[in-house]
């Protein structure tokens, strides 16, 4: 199927160009026919059919086809001289006529080109608005689900607490309530962070920060979740402290969000690695996993808010983690890149931050 479709893709533009030029020839030919048949009636305005033909070609074609129609129209208006002398003779009136036709053709073509560009831009904006509406609907549904789930757990276990005296059950209920409350607080904090970032109201406490202890602490925070899924979790840290100018809590949040994302999407007994290295005057934080990877069509939009791949919503979250990471990295004058070359072979995120002078 690919072999038969590729020639079609190459031929299609050629066919369109030929169709435009053929339309120019047909339009001027029809104008010439009208001039021949109704020469008496059109004598005061014999150029009218040709002007109309040029306008039509310029409107539906392009500049090339409209210029072709212009020169054909000039030749057609001088057809008698052309047939007798086998050459096109242009006097002063003909040059004026030619200039008029060319001006009409170029004006209509330029206006038509602008109209088409405006239509394409409008289509693009409409497509983005439709996608935004779909993302907004998915986000509202996700927020409702994510906030309702821990609240349901909290209410359920609270009811059990009120009806049971069993000490072990009460301990399990308290642990479940605490875990659900933390999950809900984390979701609310993500929403607040995203709101502050979008409004430019997130203030960083900038100071010299050694990245090694920050990265190590983020790794220790995520290790219990990795152990629960029996993941191989490797951490590589350099002897250099890698000092940057930044907010230590937000830098830890960057590492933790990336690690949480990797652990969430990596299947049991998979592999997650965290590497901090120095590359010249830049500190490089790399997080890779052996999860399903990022679909090619999603990769350019992976850092946009509320963008999640197929099945991501089933794993929880609002699609805000990577968007928050990008904004925090930008606030630290760094860069972040995502790579996922082969579906099913995992993903890799690389954060590069300038080292302190």
Characterize the main sheet.
5 strands, mixed
Number of strands: 7
Task: State mean pLDDT (0 to 100 scale).
Answer: 79
Question: What's the helix-strand series?
Answer: HHHHHHHEHEEHEEHEE
Percent helix among the residues? 55-70%
Name the beta content range: 5-15%
Give an account of the 3D structure:
Helices cover 64% and strands 12% of the residues. It is elongated and about 105 Å long. The chain has helices spanning 2-37, 39-42, 48-60, 63-77, 79-85, 92-163, 167-199, 211-228, 248-265, 321-331; strands spanning 207-210, 232-236, 243-246, 271-279, 282-289, 335-339, 348-354. By secondary structure, the chain is α+β, with helices and mostly antiparallel strands. It contains 10 helices and 7 strands. A 5-stranded mixed β-sheet has the order 2-4-5-7-6. Strands 1-3 form a two-stranded antiparallel sheet.
Keywords:
five-stranded mixed sheet, elongated, disordered N terminus, two-stranded antiparallel sheet, alpha+beta, 357 residues
Brief rundown of the structure:
The chain has 357 residues and is an alpha+beta fold. The protein contains ten helices and seven strands. The protein is elongated.
Summarize the SSE layout with pairings.
Blueprint (H helix, E strand, L loop, with lengths): L1 H36 L1 H4 L5 H13 L2 H15 L1 H7 L6 H72 L3 H33 L7 E4 H18 L3 E5 L6 E4 L1 H18 L5 E9 L2 E8 L31 H11 L3 E5 L8 E7 L3
Parallel strand pairs: 2-4
Antiparallel strand pairs: 1-3, 4-5, 5-7, 6-7
Helix pairs in contact: 1-3, 1-4, 3-4, 3-6, 4-6, 6-7, 7-10, 8-9, 9-10
């Amino acid at each position: 199927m690919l072999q038969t479709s590729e020639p079609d893709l190459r031929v299609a533009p050629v066919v369109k160009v030929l169709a435009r030029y053929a339309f120019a020839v047909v339009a001027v030919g029809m104008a010439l026919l009208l001039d021949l048949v109704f020469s008496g009636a059109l004598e005061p305005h014999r150029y009218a059919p040709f002007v109309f033909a040029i306008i039509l070609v310029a409107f539906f074609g392009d500049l090339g086809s409209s210029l072709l129609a212009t020169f054909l129209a000039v030749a057609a208006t001088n057809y008698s001289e052309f047939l007798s002398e086998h050459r096109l003779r242009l006097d002063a009136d003909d040059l004026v006529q030619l200039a008029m036709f060319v001006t009409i053709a170029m004006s209509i073509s330029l206006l038509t080109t602008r109209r088409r560009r405006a239509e394409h831009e409008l289509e693009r904006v409409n497509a983005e608005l439709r996608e935004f509406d779909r993302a907004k609907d998915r986000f509202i549904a996700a927020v409702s689900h994510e906030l309702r789930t821990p609240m349901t757990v909290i209410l359920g276990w609270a009811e059990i607490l009120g009806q049971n005296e069993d000490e072990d059950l009460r301990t399990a209920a308290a642990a479940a309530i605490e875990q659900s409350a933390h999950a809900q607080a984390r979701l609310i904090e993500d929403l607040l962070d995203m709101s502050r970032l979008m409004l430019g109201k997130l203030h960083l406490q900038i100071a010299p920060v050694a990245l090694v202890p920050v990265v190590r602490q983020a790794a220790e925070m995520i290790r219990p979740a990795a152990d629960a899924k029996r993941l191989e979790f490797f951490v590589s840290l350099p002897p250099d402290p890698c000092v940057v100018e930044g907010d230590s809590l937000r830098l830890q949040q960057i590492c933790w969000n990336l690690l949480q994302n990797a652990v969430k999407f990596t299947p049991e007994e998979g592999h997650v690695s965290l590497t901090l290295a120095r590359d010249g005057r830049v500190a490089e934080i790399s997080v890779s996993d052996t999860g399903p990877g990022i679909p090619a069509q999603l990769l350019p939009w992976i850092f946009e808010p509320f963008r999640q791949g197929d099945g991501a919503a089933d794993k929880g979250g609002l699609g805000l983690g990577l968007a928050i990471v990008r904004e925090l990295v930008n606030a630290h004058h760094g860069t972040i890149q995502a790579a996922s070359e082969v579906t099913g072979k995992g993903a890799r995120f690389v954060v590069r931050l300038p080292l302190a002078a």
